[in-house]
Amino acid sequence: MTTDAISKAIRKVGSMRLLGAHLGVTKGAVSHWKNTASPVPAEHCPEIEKLTDGEVLCEQLNPNVDWAYIRGTAKSAS
Fold first, then answer.
1. From CA 8, how far away is CA 76, in angstroms rounded?
2. CA–CA separation, 68 vs 34, rounded Å?
3. 3-state secondary structure of 1
């Protein structure tokens, strides 16, 4: 679930303000993702995954993106 994932990322980084600073967004943006269970915008997911040492995955932050395809790990249909 998106809310659990972003909450875990916030805890790992230290605060909403610090996470926002790492991502170049406001604390309010991070709060919005957490409180509305909105998917984290795809452009921020890889950085959050890195900041959390892989404890929070892109797939958890935004399940609407085909992360396997983006990572090049999708299995071909042939």
1. 33
2. 24
3. coil
pLDDT tens sequence across 18-61: 999 999 999 999 999 999 988 999 999 999 999 999 999 999 99
Q: Give the chain's domain count.
A: 1
Residue 10's domain comprises 2-71
Q: What CATH code is carried by the domain that includes residue 13?
A: 1.10.260.40
Q: Where are the alpha helices (DSSP H) in the chain?
A: 2-13, 16-23, 27-36, 45-51, 58-61, 67-71
Q: Is residue 78 included in any domain, yes or no?
A: no
> Residue 12 and residue 20: Cα distance in Å, rounded?
13
pTM, two decimal places: 0.88
Q: So what's the pLDDT on residue 77? A: 57
